[in-house]
């Protein structure tokens, strides 16, 4: 069977592909909402049925939380083994009143399918499910073995998968993990993401007096925890965005010239980018473009602060307590543990007198860099170019997908981050969508990827 | 009739005095709670009845909010005229679950009467009401004229009284305003307060991107409003508590040597003070004692900050907005209007790029200094020494009572701030109380004050 007959079959089935996605999106699998537990289970069941219908070996793997779905095609001796990782759980939908249509009643508008999970990640996961199931339904074996590992807890931190991964290592042994949970570079410009930033998140709580004090009777006599937190947070970063914690940049591997050159050729429009997010000017470390700063430079962001009176009107108090949540995005080679140690020392050195404080690290994960010269990358490049009609660009992504680093560590495999979404798909926001044409292109690119990987010489596959 | 017979009469009536206060405190006159409007009116009526019963000329003066009660004793030609100012409204009671007994079911424990309004200000107002009413009931005219101006909106800012005061100026013409809405210096050490700090309050809102952004995808490209507010707030004050706004100290009149000497002799125990408010060490401008800093040095306090994610768990965003409420306590001679202008310039000079901001001044009032050498002060000194058995100390208070400055401006009179409360009376907090013995001492001191003022030579009374 030729690849073109597969592609024709996919084309012929496109209405059913969309109908499948609509069905899956109707299931409100919000993993963080305990009242949705049965919906999360139904979403896993739906996927199990889909795999079973295509004849894959399938198993529902229980966890302490929501289960994982594992499905496998037949082994192909000598050919590469690919794990497709994704998730069937979705983000909460609040604020519900900002949705134009019901988040769980998938609706087509202007060539987009609107629903919670459309792009993140049911729609993107399903591109690989469809390509595999259709291939097999066409009566031919896949040229490679594909193992699916689709979890139900990505939106709540993947903790169970991270912990269970070593036990699953033999079963998930592979040459390459394929993940479609990201985006194209821009509308019409597909991309392969070869780098991710790491992350380290913290909560800092500063305590002063045992209760809120009257700022008239006590102002001038005690350190104000809200001022203390401003001092100490502002000591961590200067006004150009350069982090001031000693040692913070020690392990940073700077961008290489070839990367910077390649990114210079991307269709960047910083003014349009600023406009799209509602700011008059971009901001950040001098000497780097916005893409360089977002993708490959470490950053510090305060995610939230709370202290004292926040309601209407005036309440002239010295708050008893102030607290802040903040995060660093790390670049590959920075170690979250070392960052925490440097931060602890910085806080001890810079905390104003008269207050007590507690730093609570939440989670940390290193960044990731994939080998852009691997044969898997080359195969993905060809597949995407054929499916999207345009050569993909190689980019990094500023976000963090901690499980990717775990896959590299535990499975010792390559990673291919192949995103079919767009930056305005509103993942995690109201009116999430997935462009229907990108869904179909993703299915084609997926099938073409299996074909390309199947052409690798056996001796080269490991 | 001798003063000792008046004091005997007061002693004989002490049970009724307490009973009166209990009755008044049962009325939940929370001025900020619109559902309590009829209770606020009942509290005014209760006071009207009390005055009427003693034969005073009395009037309920309506305002756009809650009414004022004005009552007058007969004029005494050639003798001083005193206005007693106070308020019959009370603070809200929340958090209710922290009250040991119902805030509106006055309860005696360990010699204290617990109820909302016990010390602030019904209990303290009633000391003057009782002394005047009992004096008259004893069959003798007061040696001076006393005019009561008791409002129902002190806890919501006294805006109506401030606006109406010029129209009331003729009626309230007096030599001296007496206010008992503060405290003794410490347990067993009565005080006369001769200075108050002024105040200037603001809200600063900083806007960045049009919505919260993912700190992975966007971190490094935009100014984070929560970081911007930390930078700009920390630029306003250094780590010693010294305010960094150019011009801020220009009009500050420093403490005079005699004041500093007098305060050095107060029974100050900074370690015990720190302990009482739950901090290990006090903090503030170098070169000043804690009392000097609290009473007579200008300060900056952040009253509240809000930005981004404040709930449980991690949400790695760049918040769209951050805002803070903050206040300055000013010393006499500092002008809130000039402070606002200096602040505006400072913000313009120090605001990080990439954000928009809005400064909203709320209210401002200058500080107050009374003449410590006045004959009214001397009369109060004698009266308090006789009633409390100890000479009062002369102190300032760090809080602000804007209406006091208005009285000085509009009525051109002296002010006597005679507080009978204690610092642990929990005004504005759960379990507000008033020591019953201090209530009775306050009544005696009030009667003795009328006596002392009546002894002033007619020619000297203005």
UniProtKB/TrEMBL annotation, chains A, B:
Please give the organism: Rubripirellula tenax
Work out whether the entry's keyword set contains Transport. Answer: no
Pfam family example for this protein? Peptidase_M20
Record Gene3D superfamilies: 3.30.70.360, Zn peptidases
One of the entry's Gene Ontology molecular-function terms is: succinyl-diaminopimelate desuccinylase activity
Query: Which biological process annotations from GO are given for this protein?
Result: proteolysis
User: Which class of enzymes does this protein belong to?
Assistant: hydrolase
Q: SUPFAM superfamilies attached here?
A: Zn-dependent exopeptidases (SSF53187)
Q: Where is the Peptidase M20 dimerisation domain?
A: 194-354
Q: Which UniProt keywords apply?
A: Hydrolase, Metal-binding, Protease
Q: Which domain of life is it from?
A: Bacteria
Asked if the record carries the keyword Metal-binding, the reply is yes
NCBIfam families, per database record = PRK07907.1 (NF005914), PRK08201.1 (NF006053), PRK09104.1 (NF006579)
Annotated protein name in UniProt: Succinyl-diaminopimelate desuccinylase
Catalytic activity, EC: 3.5.1.18
């Amino acid at each position: 069977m030729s690849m073109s007959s597969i592609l024709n079959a996919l084309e012929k089935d496109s209405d059913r592909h969309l109908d499948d996605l609509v069905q899956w999106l109707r299931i409100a699998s919000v993993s963080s909402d305990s009242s949705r537990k049965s919906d999360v289970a139904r979403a896993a069941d739906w996927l199990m049925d889909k795999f079973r219908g295509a004849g894959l070996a399938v198993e529902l793997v229980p966890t302490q939380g929501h289960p994982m779905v594992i499905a496998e095609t037949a082994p192909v001796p000598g050919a590469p083994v690919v794990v497709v990782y994704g998730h069937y759980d979705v983000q909460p939908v609040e604020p519900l009143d900002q949705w134009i249509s019901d988040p769980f009643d998938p609706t087509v508008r202007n060539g987009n399918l609107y629903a919670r999970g459309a792009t993140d990640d049911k729609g993107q996961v399903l591109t690989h499910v469809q390509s595999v199931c259709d291939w097999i339904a066409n009566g031919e074996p896949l040229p490679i073995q594909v193992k699916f590992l689709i979890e139900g807890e990505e939106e709540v931190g993947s903790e169970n998968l991270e912990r269970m991964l070593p036990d699953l290592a033999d079963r998930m042994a592979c040459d390459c993990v394929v993940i479609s949970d990201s985006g194209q570079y821009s509308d019409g410009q597909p991309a392969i993401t070869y780098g991710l930033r790491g992350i380290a998140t913290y909560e800092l709580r500063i305590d002063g007096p045992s209760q809120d004090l009257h700022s008239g009777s006590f102002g001038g006599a005690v350190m104000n925890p809200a001022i203390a937190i401003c001092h100490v947070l502002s000591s961590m970063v200067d006004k150009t965005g350069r982090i001031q914690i000693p040692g913070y940049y020690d392990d940073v591997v700077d961008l290489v010239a070839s990367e910077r050159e390649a990114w210079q050729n991307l269709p960047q429009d910083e003014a349009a980018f600023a406009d799209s997010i509602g700011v008059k000017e971009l901001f950040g470390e001098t000497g780097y473009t916005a893409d360089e700063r977002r993708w490959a430079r470490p950053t510090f962001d305060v995610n939230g602060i709370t202290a004292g009176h926040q309601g209407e009107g005036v309440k002239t108090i010295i708050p008893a307590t102030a607290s802040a949540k903040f995060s660093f995005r790390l670049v590959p080679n920075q170690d979250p543990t070392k960052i925490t140690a440097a931060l602890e020392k910085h806080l001890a050195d810079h905390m104003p007198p008269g207050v007590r404080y507690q730093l609570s690290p939440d989670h940390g994960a290193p960044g990731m860099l994939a080998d852009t010269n691997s044969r898997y990358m080359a195969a993905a490049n060809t597949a995407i170019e054929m499916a999207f009609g345009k050569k993909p660009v190689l980019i990094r992504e500023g976000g963090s997908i901690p499980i990717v680093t775990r896959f590299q560590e535990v499975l010792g495999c390559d990673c291919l981050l192949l995103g079919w979404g767009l930056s305005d798909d509103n993942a995690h926001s109201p009116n999430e969508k997935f462009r229907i044409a990108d869904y179909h292109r993703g299915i084609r690119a997926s099938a073409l990827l299996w074909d390309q990987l199947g052409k690798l010489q056996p001796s080269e596959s490991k």
